[in-house]
Amino acid sequence: MTEGLRYAYAVVRDTDAPEAARTALERVPGVAGEPVVAVRHLGLAVLAGTVPAEDFDEGPLRQRLEDMAWLEQVARTHQRVVDTVGAESCVIPVRLATVCQGEEGLRRMLAAGRERFASALDRLEGRVEWGVKAYAATPAPQEPPAPQRPLAAQEPPAPEGPPTGTPNAPGGMSGRDYLRRRKAQRQAAERRWGDTEEGARLVHDTLSGLAERARLHPPQDPRLSGVSDRNVLNAAYLVRREDSAAFAERVGELAGRTAALRVELTGPWAPYSFTAPDETDAPDGTDARDETDARDGAQSAGAEG
Fold first, then answer.
1. What pLDDT digit, counting tens, does each position of 125-139 carry?
2. Which of 148, 155, 170, 291 has the fewest CB atoms within 10 Å, counting from its CB?
3. What is the pTM (predicted TM-score) of this model?
4. Measuring CA to CA, how many Å separate 273 from each of 21, 34, 90, 238?
C-alpha cells in the first residue's frame, strides 16, 4: 500500500500496531471492503485502508456526504473498525471520512499530530467510554373525567344569567369545570417535566462521581435519532476498563429510581469524546462530537489530506 487514496480509522502505538492491524484485518473489513493495515511512523501507527477515488476523492466525497444512507453505512463501518481495534489496545479514533494521499499522506498526519496523539494515548490507556442517554416520555393526553357532584356542590354559585355550560365539554360538565381540569393537567405535565430534569441531573451527577471524566453533548435531534421522546441527558463518561461492570450496574440502579425517565446505556466504546485534554477538539483537529454522532447513525464529516 503506497499510492492512491487512504482512509484513516485510528491511531495506536507502534508497539500495538501488529496485533491491532491483525485483529482489524481478520475480523472487520474497511469502508470499501478493503483490508485494514498499519502504517508506522515516529513511534505511532495509523490503521488505514485503500479506497477508490470515485467515492473518496475530494469532489465525489463531498457529494457522497450528502447521501445519508451512504454516510450511515460508512459511519457504522468506521466505528466497527475502531471499536474492534479498541477491544485489543488503546486507540485514538480518527475523524470520520479522513482521507490522505498514499502512505506519505498518512505519515504526514502522524508527524503533524505526534505530540497530541502520544499524549492522548498516555492519558487514555486502560480507559473506555460509556454513553448514557435519558429520555422523558411525553405524557399522553387524557380526557378530563366528569366532576363528582360533591365537588361541584362546594364551588361558588354561578351568577344569574345564561347557562355557563359548554356544549362540547365532555360528560355534561360546565365550561368552568372543563377549563379547570385542563389547567390541572397542564400543571401536572409541567411538574413532570421538572421531575425529569431533576432526575437527569441526579443521574449525571452520580455517574460523574464514578467516572474519571464526563462530557455533556447537546440533546439528540429526534429527526436524526428517530426517538420522539424528549432527550434530557446525552452524556459520555470516561471509565477505567476494570470499573466498567460497576459503572453499568450503577446506571441500571439509577434507571429504576424514576418512572419518568428512560435511561439508555451504550458502550463500552473507544474514548471518542475524550481524545483532547480540553474535550473540545480531537488530536487531529476535529470536533469530538462527530464521532459520537457517528455512533448514532447521523453525523457530519469532512475530508483531510
1. 999 999 999 998 655
2. 148
3. 0.68
4. 23, 27, 14, 8
